[in-house]
Amino acid sequence: MYAPSMSTYPARTEPQTIFFLGATGYLGSVVLAQLAEQAPQHKVVVLLRPGGSSVSTTTSPVPGAASVQEKLNCLKLIHPNIVGVVEGSLDDKEAIAKACEEVDLVLNCASSDHLDSVEATLEGLERNSAAHPGRPPIYIHVSGCGILSDNARGEFKKAEDIPEYSDIGFDLKSSVPQTNMHLPSDIPIFEAGIREKNPIRSLILFPGQIYGIATAGGQPTTLWIRIFLSMARAGGFVGTWGPGHNSMNNIHVVDVASATTLLVLRAIAGTAPEGKDGIYFCGSMERKVPYREWTELMGNILYEKGYIKEKGTRPLAETIVEPLGHYGWSLLGGNQFARPERLATLGWEPVETAKQDMMASLPLMIEQALSEVDWVPTVQV
């Protein structure tokens, strides 16, 4: 029977300062709301850049806020204990590194593949660790199950021929093909978490296909819906990488947020496995929906609403998929099967996923995403 190895560091009972990257985003805004509800004593510093990325609504005011101050005002409605702002983007390495030197914990919900910001974070945390011997800082990074891709290129495979990975005993360097997505960012974090000199306390979360509408006030729609909507607008139909038989674990955004929040609180308490054991898959064991199935529903919805001329789904043309190269084929054309066993040992369950499955949620997700863009239906059905 698996016995989780907990942190070797004592619980931190005093309020902690958390540097939060991605607090305005789809997942990040929900995590921010949960932290405000469950542990409001912890102080938060946020990375914010000027400029709106979408439109503001009554329920999601943050995406359309133009200035840093406007965004901060919106975020303080979600979490009143925001005590500082680092003004800039993920490309501002010096600002990120300096902030990481001065906090107790860094939480990155912003981007799983922005290597410059990961390197800046690790640089700052290494200096932080050197300045506080015996009290290394904590780094919780949200990656993705793209690391598990079998690179099937959308072709049909029997379920028994698709590898399914447990996060217990999983090795980032040997368990999966090293060309898979996210690993260039994940492996340096993992290595920093197992070194002896100036270590950091690393925990990496790997969600599956995140769905649902985020209602905390930040970006309400998941990235993959926005990507496929954009491609449908450009090409006139909803398509797949290859035949689209590939699938992955799905998980509601509220459940990913609850897993992230749990890791933050358990890491502070010293009761979460970390370092070599700080690998956490996050997904439900509900039915995995093949890409060709959910893209068909998406295509039918957009067709019936008059946005595109072709219903259903079919493989995307090479001119569309090839510019994304291996990234697209690995991430959007591969099977990614995970068993989130380590989170289960901490008592986590995908509660919201059991209430709202992905296919039932898809029409509302599409409706929400359409409300964020200036796309007018012009096709007579």
Question: Helical residue percent?
Answer: 25-40%
Number of helices: 13
Extended strand count:
13
Q: What's the mean pLDDT score?
A: 94
What do these coordinates show?
- With 381 residues, this protein is an alpha/beta fold.
- It has 2 domains: 17-217 and 250-282, NAD(P)-binding Rossmann-like Domain (Rossmann fold, 3-Layer(aba) Sandwich); 223-247 and 288-335 and 353-371.
- The protein has helices at 26-38, 68-78, 93-101, 115-131, 183-194, 223-235, 253-269, 291-304, 318-321, 325-332, 341-345, 351-355, 358-371, and strands spanning 17-21, 43-48, 82-87, 105-108, 138-142, 164-166, 201-207, 209-211, 238-240, 250-252, 279-282, 313-315, 337-339.
- It has a 7-stranded parallel β-sheet with strand order 3-2-1-4-5-7-11, with helices on both faces.
- Strand 4 (105-108), helix 4 (115-131) and strand 5 form a beta-alpha-beta unit.
- Helix 1 (26-38) crosses helix 7 (253-269) and helix 4 (115-131) packs parallel to helix 5 (183-194).
- The longest helix has 17 residues, at 115-131.
- The protein is globular and about 65 Å long.
- The N and C termini lie far apart (58 Å).
Features:
381 residues, alpha/beta, Rossmann fold, 2 domains, seven-stranded parallel sheet, two-stranded parallel sheet, 37% helix, globular
SSE layout:
Layout: E1 17-21, H1 26-38, E2 43-48, H2 68-78, E3 82-87, H3 93-101, E4 105-108, H4 115-131, E5 138-142, E6 164-166, H5 183-194, E7 201-207, E8 209-211, H6 223-235, E9 238-240, E10 250-252, H7 253-269, E11 279-282, H8 291-304, E12 313-315, H9 318-321, H10 325-332, E13 337-339, H11 341-345, H12 351-355, H13 358-371
Parallel strand pairs: 1-2, 1-4, 2-3, 4-5, 5-7, 6-13, 7-11, 8-10, 9-12
Helix pairs in contact: 1-7, 3-4, 4-5, 8-13
